[in-house]
Amino acid sequence: MKAILKFxxxxxxxxxxxxxxxxxxxxxxVEKVKLAEVTRxxxxxxxxVALEKGFFEEEGxxxxxxxxWGGDKTMTTLLSDGADIALVxxxxxxxxxxxxxxxxxxxxxQLTQTDGTFLVSREKIDDFDWEMLKGSTFLGQxxxxxxxxxxxxxxxxNDIDPQTDLExxxxxxxxxxxxxxxxxxxxxxxxxxxxxxxxxxxxxxxxVASFGEESGQVPYTTFMAKQSYMKKNPxxxxxxxxxxHKAQAWVEEEDTEExxxxxxxxxxxxxxxxxxxxxxxxxxxxxxxxxxxLTKDGWENLQAIMEEAGELPKKVDYEKLVNTSVVxxxxx
Length: 332
Known about the structure:
This is ABC transporter substrate-binding protein. By secondary structure, this protein is of the alpha/beta class.
């Protein structure tokens, strides 16, 4: 009898051990998500907050971030499965659709809702007027990308023809634009933060205007994935959006210096004071899309800007490339 009881105890212990190990395994299981960002900028502060504050981990996601430097490279990475999700301008999904993609790229959550660039002059200007760009050399962004299209849209809004009223340079690789300006190319340059503020602090340039304030709301950078990935991984997308929504709310409510401290590891060349100034600059002009929903009006404004720049291949229905169901579920 003792032998039978002993044997039964051993079996019970083994079963309990197996149960505990299985439960721990399920709890510790995390899903890897490869995320490609178009550039490294304080403009994307909520994304870095989600990473640093552990919001992705809380959702069971191990997000691996890669900076791919440019819309074309980012989209190539996504389409070739080098990334599961991309943070890039919504215009890239329209370009992919125009090429007849059988697996379209879907915009499912919006991170920023204004342009994130600033006009930087080489010389200090106390009383800036857009008319000052006439006859100057303007170092713009990559042709066909949102920064360049918004830049041209703002110039035209201020009665400046970018093709005839100034010398427009847009053949420099995205990642090399700051270095080109620092080396002496251009009287004015269109830059993201924190580069613009760093240049100002170092005396290399002076911020004179915000393209975000001039252009109004537009789905500037959104998270997107191939339709096939979204259908195969609906829970992953939902967890991803939930983590980002927490981060957006945290950035909206937290002290700017605290936000700067959290994202500082992603910007080793910038001090916390500069980062805090930049965060406040973006937050005050409403750049962070706190509700994360890409609206139909925003989509139409995007295509209007593309058409004005001569870069819209064809109009694409909102419902074809935008899916707001996950955001609506998470933010309900």
